[in-house]
Design goal:
heterodimer; A: about 725 residues; alpha+beta; Aldehyde Oxidoreductase, domain 4; 3 domains; seven-stranded mixed sheet; five-stranded mixed sheet; about 25% helix; disordered N terminus; B: about 150 residues; Ubiquitin-like (UB roll); DNA polymerase, domain 1; 2 domains; 5 strands
Chain lengths: ~725, ~150
């Protein structure tokens, strides 16, 4: 295996009495006086010093998914480091790191081998050095807890005694990995690396960055999507104490559509620059603007859904297995249902912000981003910079959920910093955040099933109509992809099956939202499956297991196979854990749903009570997850808990509505989310196996909504086909 | 700009600011106490929660002129070395995900425990329902508050 991570240097620090950070390298105390440790950089990701401390670079953006802990754990495992003597340092954006982004639940999937390879190479040279020093065969040596161990004799040498020798040896081209059953660190419940600073307020998020001479800024954007700035009077805004300047942000001056020719635009606006955030906010509040809305379709939510509905009959076929019409002619009954899901905002707790110091020689950026590469590409496109003229720091991110895949706020900041020639920190208000998001696409989905005499599905049709987030990648009027994928469940499980997609153009900016397409489709699929079970007077889990058939590999698309056995196992376990087969009293009910996403299998049961006034209380959630090897048990459970609560929150409350081309919601009072008093206990179990680890950020989310809707039906007889359940519109 | 003197984390701090400036921005921009976060600016999410005279308050909704008389405590002033029982419980249960709302959550939890040394789930739900966590750490927060109560009652 070849990796570009083999950049080796030998770093020898000259003695400095300061005891402070030197070039990002720490000094350890040795006895009573501070003596600088000599640090050996074995690779860009791994350094070991003569005090025995291992420094590991956490290269991916930490957005709350725990990757800053998980990736170093993998390296520490393969290296045989002592986790208590590991220091984790957040890396800046660096092409040498590879796969440096957060999205699609891919970070562990893509970095598992990369991290292990980088660490195994260093382990190799440590073993070589120890072999020479101990006069033992390499094959008899292993690394454990920061030492090379000769287990036969019990003789051990700490890493720090081997550094000089080891650093002279070439790193191998290929490596062998530790057997997974010897893992000491991976799989453990490991508290995240930043915990102390997170509970004492020391952690610096991007929004906390402060540079000398920095100017604070905010932006007021046209609430209408695709709108222009129009005319404005900034006299009063300029009179606000602390306001320095008012700058119009016209993105067409910078090439405009950064995401592609057919993407919703980064919305134009007016920036207020000031000597404090508060002055900037106040200044923005004093702007008197007549927005230009001439470019807008002036859409309303009802009209948008009406167009989706019409498009259900004008679709393109995305997948066709067998012939659904044959099934319809011959089967005993057909059943259909139409489901609707809304636009959703991301609302990460840290609002959009960015700090840029745009100097003549270097554009230096501190950004809460999932996607530093896109940020770099945006800067190159806007300003014609070369990659080496851009430095992107990756402070911890206060939530992302897909929103920070897009770099609009960073581009705004760079434009402002370049224009005024000073460092600028731009902070959006919460209102701007909710009104100028890249929303989860709303959709209407029509499901049609043909059933045989035993009530089982022989024909399956899933039609989805909406405006696609993939429009930005396509050509005028047609997206590059659709919102229903050819590998969507239950492809491969039903002989006559058809997926269809109807596309509608809209101004509403659309983007990735946690679990992306499946956040919508799994709601329709698993609500429908439970409806079919009930139609046939069968238990929904019995029905689903019968629908899946025996444990086997089911071909889906090309080489992609669906391991039905792994799904069956999580379904059976969640049935047991949730006491599914023990009846509940009147007014209470359980609902079930399951999914496969990013290679992981998740089954969930939601238990609710519904009172006579239709008040819903979520009593409990059970989840069983097979994601292969669990890297960090604490972090993995957190991802499941968080994903489920997000799915439930959206199902209950999440809804962005559009009026005259603008989002109607603006803050947490009208964009509601689950609070403490509504949050159920979530019981999580992982299937123990040694399969390669798969994604976990997204897979727990999609089943939550249909499991909740199915539970409400079980408790009340009321079928939810339209989200959110507690719509105020 | 007028000048004001505040007592923050038992230290007198003098700042120049407009009279309507919310305490949040004084803490963050003037004094560099960035542990207190901006979330909504309207007192809805609780991310900016600090203590004023021993009570949890929303610093985004309190102009500087309303907090001149008493003692302000922020997350930075809660303990010397994150050794407050609530912080310890938070660490033991690895509560934070993104962590952005956690300063406010901790300050609200400390306030609750100062008034109710052994809260039930119901008490916790009532006291904490103004505190938004987008990542979904609620059940760990609930457990951590119980754990902190146990630690203190030992």
């Amino acid at each position: 295996m070849k990796s570009t991570l083999d950049r080796r240097t030998f770093v020898k620090l000259t003695a400095s009495a300061s005891g402070a950070l030197i070039a990002g390298v720490y000094l350890q105390s040795c006895g009573s006086e501070m003596v600088p440790a000599t640090i050996h950089e074995f690779s860009p990701l791994i350094k070991i010093d003569t005090d025995g401390w291992v420094t590991l670079i956490a290269k991916n953006p930490e957005i709350g998914q725990g990757i800053k802990t998980a990736l170093p754990m993998i390296m520490a495992e393969e290296l045989g480091a002592d986790w208590d003597k590991v220091k984790v340092v957040q890396g800046d954006f660096d092409e040498a790191y590879e796969e440096q982004w957060a999205g699609g639940s891919y970070a562990i999937v893509l970095n598992w081998d990369l991290m292990r390879t980088a660490a195994a190479k260093v382990r190799h040279v440590l073993l070589q050095a120890a072999s020479k020093k101990m006069s033992k065969k390499v094959s008899e040596l292993s690394t454990i807890k920061g030492k090379v161990l000769h287990s036969k004799s019990g003789e051990a040498l700490p890493f720090e005694t081997l550094l000089l020798e080891a650093s002279k040896l070439p790193l191998p081209e290929t490596v062998e990995f530790k057997p997974t059953d010897s893992f000491e660190i991976v799989g453990k419940n490991t508290p995240q690396v930043d915990l102390g600073q997170l509970v004492n307020g020391e952690t610096k998020f991007s929004i906390d960055v402060k540079l000398p001479g920095m100017v604070y800024a905010t932006v007021l954007k046209n609430p209408v999507f695709e709108g222009g700035v129009g005319e404005y009077d900034d006299t009063e805004a300029r009179m606000v104490n602390g306001v320095i300047d008012i700058v119009e942000l016209d993105n067409t001056a910078y090439g405009g559509r950064l995401l592609g020719p057919n993407s919703p635009n980064f919305v134009n606006g007016i920036a207020v620059l000031a000597n404090s955030t508060w002055s900037a906010f106040k200044g923005a509040g004093k702007l008197d603007v007549v927005w230009d809305t001439s470019g807008s379709r002036k859409e309303n939510t009802d009209g948008i859904f009406e167009r989706f509905n019409l498009q259900l009959t004008s679709t393109a076929i995305e997948r066709k297995d067998g012939d659904i019409h044959r099934a319809r002619k011959t089967e005993a009954s057909n059943f259909e249902a139409v489901y609707q899901v809304p636009f959703l905002a991301h609302i990460p707790m840290e609002p959009m912000n960015c700090t840029v110091d745009f100097r003549a020689d270097l554009c230096e950026v501190w950004a809460p981003t999932q996607n530093p590469k896109a940020l770099q590409e945006g800067l190159i496109k806007l300003f014609g910079l070369k990659p080496e003229q851009i430095k992107i720091h990756l402070p911890r991110v206060g939530g992302a959920f897909g929103r920070r895949y897009y770099v609009d706020y960073a581009m705004d900041t760079a434009i402002l910093s370049k224009k005024i020639g000073k460092p600028v920190k731009l902070t959006w208000t919460r209102e701007e955040d909710i009104q100028h998001d890249w929303y989860r696409p709303a959709s209407i989905q029509k499901m049609v099933a043909s059933l045989d005499e035993s009530g089982m599905v022989t024909g399956w049709q899933h039609i989805l109509a909406n405006a696609s987030r993939k429009t930005c990648l396509g050509r005028e009027g047609r997206p590059a992809g659709t919102e229903i994928d050819e590998y969507e469940f239950p492809a491969g499980f039903v002989p006559d099956l058809q997926f269809e997609y109807g596309h509608v153009m809209s101004d509403v900016p659309l983007g990735q939202w946690r679990a992306v397409g499946l956040s919508a489709t799994v709601f329709a699929i698993h609500s429908f499956l439970s409806e079919l079970a009930i139609l046939n007077k069968m238990d929904p889990i019995d029905y689903f297991l019968k629908f899946l058939g025996p444990a086997r590999m089911v071909p889906v698309v090309g080489d992609d196979e669906f391991d039905a056995g792994r799904l069956i196992e999580v379904v059976q376990k969640v049935r047991h854990n949730s006491n599914w087969d023990i009846p509940l009293p009147k007014g209470k009910g359980r609902g079930f749903a399951a999914t496969k996403l990013s290679g992981s299998f998740v089954a969930e049961v939601v238990t609710v009570s519904v009172d006579e006034n239709e008040n819903v209380t979520i009593l409990r959630v059970d989840a069983v997850v097979d994601c292969g090897i669990v890297v960090n048990l604490s972090g993995a459970k957190a991802q499941v808990e968080g994903g489920i609560l997000e799915g439930l929150s959206a199902a209950l409350y999440g809804e962005v509505t559009v009026k005259n081309g603008a989002a109607e919601q603006s803050n947490f009072h009208d964009y509601r989310w689950i609070r403490m008093d509504e949050a159920p206990e979530i019981h999580v179990e992982f299937i123990a196996n040694n399969l390669p680890p798969r994604g976990l950020g997204e897979p727990p989310l999609p089943p939550a909504a249909p499991a909740l809707a199915n539970a409400i039906f079980a408790a009340s007889g009321k079928r939810i086909r339209k989200l959110p359940i507690l719509s105020t519109k | 700009m007028p000048s004001y003197t505040l007592t923050i984390n038992a230290t007198k701090r003098t700042v120049s600011a407009d009279s309507d400036t919310p305490l949040l921005w004084i803490l963050r921009d003037n004094l560099g106490l960035t542990g207190t976060k901006y979330g909504c600016g309207k007192g809805i999410c609780g991310t900016c929660t600090v203590h004023y005279n021993g009570n949890a308050v929303r610093s985004c909704a309190l102009p500087i002129t309303s907090v001149l008389e008493g003692n302000i405590v922020t997350i930075e002033g809660l303990s010397e070395k994150e050794n407050h029982s609530v912080q310890q419980a938070w660490m033991e249960l690895d509560v934070p995900q993104c962590g952005y709302c956690q300063s406010g959550q901790i300050m609200a939890a400390v306030d609750l425990l100062s008034k109710n040394e052994n809260p039930t789930d119901k008490d916790i739900n009532a006291a904490m329902q103004g505190m938004l966590c987008r990542c979904g750490t609620y059940s760990r927060i609930r457990k951590a508050i119980h754990l902190a109560a146990n630690k203190r009652n030992k």
